[in-house]
Amino acid sequence: MSAMRPSRLWVWVVATAVALAAVAACFGPQTSNDYYDRGVARFKDDKYKGAVADFTKAISIRPKYTAAYIGRGDARIGLGQYEEAIADFDQALQLQPDAPGVHYSRGIAKFMLGRYRGAIADFDQAIRLQPHKAYTYYIRGQAKSGIGQYKEAIADWQASLELANEANDSDLIASIERRIQEFERK
């Protein structure tokens, strides 16, 4: 009879743990990290509104949560809310000024608004902090072409092409080559 007690106790422990996990799942996220993690998952599934809501909740729990500002800014870019994204990236940069990805993302938001000079300044800073990202040179070239700086744009695309070749990024290589040919004809 005593041999059965540990077995019953074990069953009770497992059943209790399962019940507690089920109850916790019903209540959803509780911590800023829980909301952040769910926001990341929603962002990856292109569920940008839900991601914004989760990142916002994470920030309300932990107001200096840099990663949540960045995530919310990126989700807002996905929603076309570029001004709001810029505000989130500004806040993230106040908390972490040397984050190259934040400068890049803020540059993207400015680029989408047609603020090419501001975008170029952000891409310049991203390149200073992280000089080996082909996409940053590529999009900076796009912004430079937007303000008529075609020679400078081609120089950026050539730098991007070198980095893309090193990384063997065939999609980016093809895109850059088309862009360079198009502008060399001008």
Automatic annotation (TrEMBL):
Highest taxon of source: Bacteria
GO cellular component term of the entry, any: cell outer membrane
PROSITE patterns the UniProt entry points to: PROKAR_LIPOPROTEIN, TPR, TPR_REGION
Keyword Repeat set for record: yes
Protein keywords: Repeat, Signal, TPR repeat
TPR repeats: 32-65, 66-99, 100-133
Gene Ontology terms: biological process: receptor-mediated virion attachment to host cell
Signal peptide: 1-24
InterPro entries: TPR-like_helical_dom_sf (IPR011990), TPR_rpt (IPR019734), Ycf3 (IPR050498)
PANTHER family associated with the record: TETRATRICOPEPTIDE REPEAT PROTEIN 6, UDP-N-ACETYLGLUCOSAMINE--PEPTIDE N-ACETYLGLUCOSAMINYLTRANSFERASE SPINDLY-RELATED
Name of the protein this chain belongs to: Tetratricopeptide repeat protein
Organism: Caldilineaceae bacterium SB0675_bin_29
